[in-house]
Design goal:
The chain has 192 residues and is mainly alpha-helical. 51% of the residues lie in helices and 11% in strands. The protein has two domains: 17-78; 93-190, 3-Layer(bab) Sandwich (minor pseudopilin epsh fold). It is built from seven helices and three strands. The chain has a three-stranded antiparallel sheet with strand order 2-1-3. α1 (18-47) packs antiparallel against α2 (54-78). The radius of gyration is 18 Å and the shape is globular. The two termini are 27 Å apart.
Length: 192
């Protein structure tokens, strides 16, 4: 059984109302709860030998949705800080890899922001592929599709409306700027 992590340390985060954050935490907790429920049901179906049933098939298809919803939110909240963000260190491995991949930190940030501003709902994830030693900014439409298999999510931004509508309405660009100012680059760099 998974237990929802407590992200109350983010309350008071500049650019994010406490109500928005509490709503978002509740949504995240729903993913944890639903993952646990699905896991219990699937274990019971497996014990009963119901592998070929439509329930078994459909619940297994839903399994990745709940898992990724849970983990992506943990990564998203985990790369934020209520201490007004931090600057990316030009000396750390992440910064050097960003410059190697994108040409400059500014080019990376421009690309990441542009992806976050695209029409649609989903996630923007900076992935690191250890095998090729490369970074990729990736648009994810849904939790369970579009991920780069084998890559490590380094920086995760939620661009579903629930992440910003309460505070920003349809002004996603203002949310993007608030998010970028709240990044804990030290935490992000640890993910490589």
């Amino acid at each position: 059984m998974y237990t929802a992590k407590n992200f109350d340390t983010l309350l008071g985060l500049t650019g994010f109302s406490d109500q928005l954050l509490k709503n978002h935490f509740t949504l995240y907790q729903g993913y944890v709860t639903n993952f646990n429920k699905l896991n219990d049901i699937l274990v019971a179906l497996e014990k009963d030998g119901k592998f070929g049933t439509p329930e078994y098939s459909e619940l297994n298809r839903r399994f990745g949705w709940e898992w990724n919803g849970m983990r992506l939110h943990e990564l998203y909240f985990g790369n934020l800080t209520a201490k007004n963000g931090s600057a990316i260190s030009e000396q750390d491995v992440l910064s050097k890899k960003i410059v190697q991949e994108f040409g400059s930190l500014e080019a990376f940030l421009k690309d990441f922001r542009a992806m976050a501003a695209m029409r649609g709902i989903g996630w923007v994830v900076l992935y690191f592929d250890k095998e090729s030693d490369r970074l990729f900014n990736v648009w994810i439409n849904e939790h369970d599709a579009g991920h780069f298999a084998g890559c490590v999510p380094v920086l995760v931004m939620d661009v579903f409306e629930h992440a910003y509508m309460l505070d920003y309405g349809i002004k996603r660009a203002d949310y993007i700027e608030a998010f970028m100012k709240a990044i804990d680059w030290g935490k992000v760099a640890e993910r490589i």
